[in-house]
Amino acid sequence: MRPPPRVLAIDDSVLTLAAIKIALEAAGFIVDTASDLASFTELRARERHDLFVVDVQMPEAFGDDVAGALRGVYGEAAPIVLFSGLPEDELRDRAMLAGVAGHVSKKAGLGALVSKVRDLTSAAG
């Protein structure tokens, strides 16, 4: 039997990270969380992840820049989802420019995030 998909989420809000973790774990995913770039980099190096959930507006970096580093510097092929409170049109444009697999507005809620993660991990596996 194949293990559940492993997701790595980065967001500077520990409350948002806790909510993401609870929602995705309830849906059957294994979830690692990072509230800063150092812990994100450490977790990414330590475990293989099937998908990344990345906040766009963080103090240390923009999520679309993190996505670019995952692809360009680290050679990650796993899908990346931008999760942000930005207006939908701006989030969509940033996701398109970053070349990520998808985006979900925080206003759409955790159910929308779970659905997107489920769709992308099902398609990849």
Describe how the helices and strands are arranged.
Blueprint: E1 6-10, H1 14-26, E2 30-34, H2 37-46, E3 51-55, H3 63-72, E4 80-84, H4 88-98, E5 102-105, H5 110-124
Parallel strand pairs: 1-2, 1-3, 3-4, 4-5
Helix pairs in contact: 1-5, 3-4
Concise overview:
This protein has 125 residues and is an alpha/beta fold. The protein has five helices and five strands; from the N terminus they run E-H-E-H-E-H-E-H-E-H. The mean pLDDT is 95.
Tell me the domain tally: 1
User: Residue share in helices?
Assistant: 40-55%
Counting DSSP E segments of at least 2 residues, the number of strands comes to 5
Largest sheet geometry: 5 strands, parallel
Shape: globular
Uncertain residue ranges: none
Helix count, DSSP H or I runs of 4 or more residues: 5
CATH architecture designation:
3-Layer(aba) Sandwich
**What is Rg?**
13 Å
CATH class: Alpha Beta
CATH topology: Rossmann fold
Report the CATH superfamily.
Answer: Response regulator
> Which strand order does the major sheet show?
2-1-3-4-5
Element string (H = helix, E = strand)? EHEHEHEHEH
Task: Classify the beta-strand content into a percent band.
Answer: 15-25%
Average per-residue pLDDT, rounded, comes to 95
Termini, distance in Å?
Answer: 13 Å
Structural class: alpha/beta
Could you explain how this protein is built, in words?
The protein is of the alpha/beta class and 125 residues long. It has a single domain, classed as 3-Layer(aba) Sandwich (Rossmann fold), CATH 3.40.50. The chain has five helices and five strands. It has helices at residues 14-26, 37-46, 63-72, 88-98, 110-124, and strands spanning 6-10, 30-34, 51-55, 80-84, 102-105. It has a five-stranded parallel β-sheet with strand order 2-1-3-4-5, sandwiched between helices. Strand 1 (6-10), helix 1 (14-26) and strand 2 (30-34) form a beta-alpha-beta unit. It is globular and about 40 Å long. 38% of the residues are buried.
